[in-house]
Amino acid sequence: MTNQPKTFLALLEQRWQQGHFVCVGLDPEYERLPEVVKEGRTPEDALVFFACAIIDATADLVCAFKPNSAFYEAYGEVGMRALAQIVSYSKTNYPEVPIILDAKRGDNSNTNLGYVRSSFDLLQADAITVHPYLGKEALAPFLARADKGVIVLVKTSNSGSGEFQDLLVGEEREPLYLAVARNVARYWNNNGNCALVVGATYPAELQRVRMLVGDLPLLIPGIGAQGGDVAATVKAGQDSRGWGMIINSSRGIIYASKEADFAQAARSATSALRTEINSYRN
Ligand SMILES: O=C(O)c1cc(=O)[nH]c(=O)n1[C@@H]1O[C@H](COP(=O)(O)O)[C@@H](O)[C@H]1O
């Protein structure tokens, strides 16, 4: 029997089964790292040390880790090398925890082949966030990867997300974000590898998306630093099994303490969020 690596969805479901719904966002800014992390280390080593300490402290409590590429690209080669080391560390030591590369990609189809190669094959991420604007045809190289997750932006958490996402479209005169959610659920998910992004800052919209897409997994950022309400998020976001949620917090967890106890504080914050989420699940 061949030992095939598990798909993104299989990894996720295994984590949900164990009551893990928190996604820790690995979004470090060098300037904000605790002094104890920076002392005696190069910036590259400090970024790696910090993220790996957070990974070690929280891996048994989470459904996923989500490094956002921007926080690494910001430091050029140093940052990109750090990102590669962090993903490799997590996959080696905690292969049961999927890694979502938050890069919000989405270009023409032949260009997307480059992103598929860099994110899935070189970096070894289990899933990636993508923009839907160019349509299913353009995203085909991502969608073809049945082993990986394709997480499509639907209703984002930022205050200005309504500018386009809430525009009423089509014969139904429904918000654009619902049209995107419907198309992904009905027509893009032939390989069972799609998920959607809906911000925790929009619980009413989250509920509308959940009612439309059945048990499709939802990545839900906006808890913690952005002020999303955990109770409203879980009530609106859980699927028919009480699963279906990847609830992300980045700054609220990684900067829980600026002192030498930063990793322990990250663990406590993750654990508290995990408990709170589970207290609201059906
Ligand atoms: O795709 C995302 O993860 C994302 C979508 C969205 O609508 N809002 C949003 O904040 N995010 C990401 O989620 C993370 C949120 O970080 P915190 O606000 O620090 O918890 C960042 O990496 C954002 O880029």
From TrEMBL:
Name of one Pfam family that matches: OMPdecase
Enzyme class: lyase
UniProt superkingdom: Bacteria
Orotidine 5'-phosphate decarboxylase domain residues: 21-266
Keywords linked to the UniProt accession: Decarboxylase, Lyase, Pyrimidine biosynthesis
Catalytic residues, chain numbering: K104
Catalyzed reactions per annotation: orotidine 5'-phosphate + H(+) = UMP + CO2
Protein's GO biological process: 'de novo' pyrimidine nucleobase biosynthetic process; 'de novo' UMP biosynthetic process
Pathway(s) where this gene product acts: Pyrimidine metabolism; UMP biosynthesis via de novo pathway; UMP from orotate: step 2/2
Family, per entry: Belongs to the OMP decarboxylase family. Type 2 subfamily.
Record's protein name: Orotidine 5'-phosphate decarboxylase
Lineage: Bacteria, Bacillati, Chloroflexota, Ktedonobacteria, Ktedonobacterales
